[in-house]
Design brief:
By secondary structure, this protein is of the alpha/beta class. The protein is built from 13 helices and eleven strands. α8 links the parallel β5 and β6.
Length: 357
């Protein structure tokens, strides 16, 4: 509504004023009477009733109206009321306010927010990685989020699995997760699967989603996620943590390397300890899970550079991030020039995840 009146495509403009009225006057002086006609009622001289003005996220109608005083650095948003028109892509008033901090980003905007609200993400695991990732994806307004996990909440989970509380001990994780996520954003549809992600259901499950987030905690499941997503051409984010370190990469089947290009086979059982055996600093999966959520949102928006062909490594003790190149292997059994994996039944997911001849 305002772009043609201002002659600029900028989403943010720096302007000075002691009150909202001063700010509007400054904008009219800067952009001319055409802009003023869009904002002010010609009869009353006040702000048009269909123009919503927020100061630091608060509607000025609930403050002092146009006389609301502005502190230095205040964020003021001028947003027209929504009736499903083109400008704000059918977002409701509440949605505009809820997502205002990301709608104002040039890479998101109203169009990007609608993309997120039409998108679907499956999260495998409601634990250390799945907890922070699901919280951020739900808050961002992803339209449909699926969670698959067959475990129950244990007291030892609470140090890092921030979806769950003391009251959830012995509850199915998916029930605990759904309850928390719906409280954060009731508009998001939460689909739960109280079952293990297994050979028998993997292909059917991943095929229904736009993106998959690997929040699993064991090698067989990670290889299964990779192989199922590659076969179904579903993009996914891989993540893993142990002790004070974590790593993540984003995999777009057909457009870059996959997890098997990084790790062709799982290490033999007992060679690399699990978090249960070796421990993990609770904040580490928080860092990696948040990065996975960020990659997911970027993919759905089509914005920025993804971690495709790159592995990001995080060392919390040294507080250092490192990036390593990951190239597609022409001999990869999943995504190589002549892939061997045509069906999940060809892989022994109970041992080192090798492909049977």
């Amino acid at each position: 509504m305002f772009k043609d009146a201002t002659g600029t495509t900028a989403t943010t403009i720096d302007v000075s004023g002691e009150t909202v009225k001063d700010l509007i006057d400054a904008l009219i002086k800067q952009f001319g009477p055409k802009f003023g006609e869009r904002i002010l009622d010609e009869k009353t001289g006040g702000v048009r009733r269909f123009i919503n003005i927020f100061v630091n996220g608060k509607d000025i109608r609930n403050l002092q109206g146009a006389d609301t005083k502005l502190e230095e650095g205040a964020e003021v948003r001028l947003i027209p009321a929504v009736a499903g028109g083109k400008e704000f892509f059918g977002l409701t008033q509440d949605q505009i306010v809820r997502y205002s901090r990301q709608i104002i980003l040039r890479e998101v905007g109203g169009k990007g927010q609608k993309k997120l609200m039409r998108s679907s993400v499956l999260i495998v695991g409601a634990g250390g990685l799945g907890s922070p990732a699901s919280l951020y994806l739900t808050a961002a307004g992803i339209g449909k989020i699926g969670i698959i996990d067959s475990d129950r909440v244990d007291l030892s989970n609470l140090q890092r699995q921030i979806l769950h509380t003391n009251d959830d001990i012995d509850r199915p994780k998916i029930e605990s997760a759904k309850e928390k996520l719906q409280k954060i954003n009731p508009e998001v549809k939460i689909i739960t699967h109280n079952e293990r992600f297994a050979v028998e259901n993997a292909l059917d499950i991943v095929g229904d989603w736009d993106f998959v987030l690997d929040g699993s905690d064991n090698f067989p499941t990670k290889f299964l996620i990779n192989d199922a997503c590659v076969l179904k051409r579903v993009p996914f984010s891989h993540g893993g943590v142990l002790r004070f370190v974590g790593m993540t990469t984003t995999i777009l089947p057909g457009k870059g390397p996959c997890y098997r290009c990084l790790t062709p086979e799982a290490p033999p059982i007992g060679m690399i300890p699990t978090c249960q055996e070796a421990g993990v600093l609770g904040a580490v999966p928080g860092v990696i899970g948040a990065i996975q959520a960020t990659e997911t949102i970027k993919y759905l928006l089509g914005s920025g550079e993804l971690l495709v062909g790159r592995t990001l490594f995080f060392d919390a003790l040294e507080m250092r991030f490192e990036e390593f190149e990951l190239k597609r292997s022409p001999n990869c059994p999943a995504c190589g020039d002549r892939p061997l994996i045509k069906d999940l039944s060809q892989v022994d997911y109970g041992h080192v995840c090798e492909v049977r001849p």
